Amino acid sequence: QVPLVESGGGLVQAGGSLRLSCTPSGRTFSGYAMGWFRQVLGKEREFVAAISWSGSSTYYVDSVKGRFTISRDNAKNTVYLQMNSLKPEDTAVYYCAATTVRSNYNDHRRYGYWGQGTRVTVSS
């Protein structure tokens, strides 16, 4: 059973928006920091954004700052990634992940739980 389930991916034109959602399957992740990563075939998994367990701190890769927003609703046990002003280079499979660590959120090796990913395609 995959512990996290992503949704909200799809095809969008450049400049458009999408909102990704991530919900746990069978357990709660309210005490975990959550991250979003993305991967293009043949390339390493790239950190996109992370949010602390409380939601008070957020972190972004420079390329998405000002365009993407990560948030969480612990009451709904859901993490979101709002993506605006999308660019063709944002095209990738996006993965949600959970971690108990309190630092180095951009390191995918520090995340112990992953979803299966949702594909985002941005056309030019």
Task: Tell me about this structure.
A hairpin with a 4-residue loop joins strand 7 and strand 8 (about 80-85). This protein has about 120 residues and is an all-beta fold. The protein contains no helices and eleven strands. It is globular. The chain has strands spanning about 5, 10-15, 20-25, 35-40, 45-50, 60, 70-75, 80-85, 90-100, 115, 120-124.
Strand proportion: over 45%
Name the helix and strand elements from N-terminus to C-terminus, one letter apiece: EEEEEEEEEEE
Overall mean pLDDT: 94
The gross shape turns out to be globular
Low-confidence stretches: none
Q: How many alpha or pi helices?
A: 0
Helices and strands: which structural class?
A: mainly beta
> How far is it from the N-terminal to the C-terminal residue, by CA?
36 Å
The largest sheet, given as strand count, sense and whether it forms a barrel, is: 7 strands, mixed
Helix content: under 10%
Rg from alpha-carbon coordinates: 13 Å
> So what's the oligomer here?
single chain
* Strand tally: 11
